[in-house]
Amino acid sequence: MIHFNLKNRPAFTMIELVFVIVVLGILASLAMPRLDRDLKQEAADSILSDIRYTQHLALVDNMHEYDDVKWQQKFWRVVFSNCGSDLFYMVGSDTSKDDSLSANFALEEAATDPTNGKPMFNSCGTDNSAYSERIFITNKYGITAVAASNACSNNNSNKYIGFDHLGRPHYGFSAATAPDYSSHITSTCTFTFTMSDGDTFGIEILPETGYAQIVGQDAS
Q1: pLDDT, tens digit, for every residue of 16-71?
Q2: Burial (0-12, 13-18, 19+ Cβ within 10 Å), 160
Q3: Less Cβ around it within 10 Å: N or C end of the chain?
Q4: Can you give the pTM of this predicted structure?
Q5: Can you tell me the distance from the alpha carbon of 204 to that of 188, in angstroms, rounded to the nearest whole number?
């Protein structure tokens, strides 16, 4: 029978401990970029989900008023805005048609976040805890800039996209005074988001169908 003398078993040497620490450091350095990519992917997935949620609201909540020449101002929309350097977005419909030039809407006109029941709305200078935290994209994801291009850009101001009762995308409807669907976009609308490390990702909304996807991820 073989007996092991545990009392005489040698401990780790200093060289072995240093080697383990070095290996752990290498693994940590390899993992950090992966964590950054996950944060960017999480931001892209969350924003994409809310753009699709906006389209869903437009499909199930018909805002047509054919006897009102300004009815297109009521389209459900997602609006990207800021409070100083803090970026956020809101989802809602200007049912009162009194905030048309800015594409904004009032608190009572905002969509409700289905995950927590809070409004997807922000008013600079108020308690943000009253609103859905997912919309505060600088605080949550480190997004430092949002740019609109192609069909949803007007000198890169008033960054938003809306949808009609058929789910079709519209831009420029916030000032519509004639029910002529002239705001219906005919080319791809793209929003580009810049992270705090300078990395970017884009979300595009296709014309006619309003299908939204992450740029470079057609299966998203």
Answers
A1: 555 556 566 666 656 555 555 589 999 999 999 999 999 999 999 877 776 788 88
A2: buried
A3: N
A4: 0.81
A5: 7
Q: Supply φ then ψ for residue 169, to 5 degrees.
A: -80, 145
Pairing of strands 200-205, 212-214: antiparallel
Which pair of structure tokens corresponds to residue 135? 């919309």
Question: How far apart are the C-alpha atoms of 199 and 213, rounded to whole Å?
Answer: 18
Dihedral Cα 69, 73, 74, 79, nearest 10 deg: 170
Tokens of 2: 């073989």
Answer whether residue 9 is part of any domain.
no
Distance between CA 179 and CA 196 in Å, rounded?
A: 42
Tokens representing residue 71 in the block:
């009815």
Phi, psi of 40 (to 5 degrees): -65, -40
CATH label of the domain that carries residue 77: 3.55.40
Is 14 within a domain? no
In a domain, 23, yes or no: no
Residue 46 belongs to a domain? yes
Structurally, the chain folds into a number of domains equal to: 1
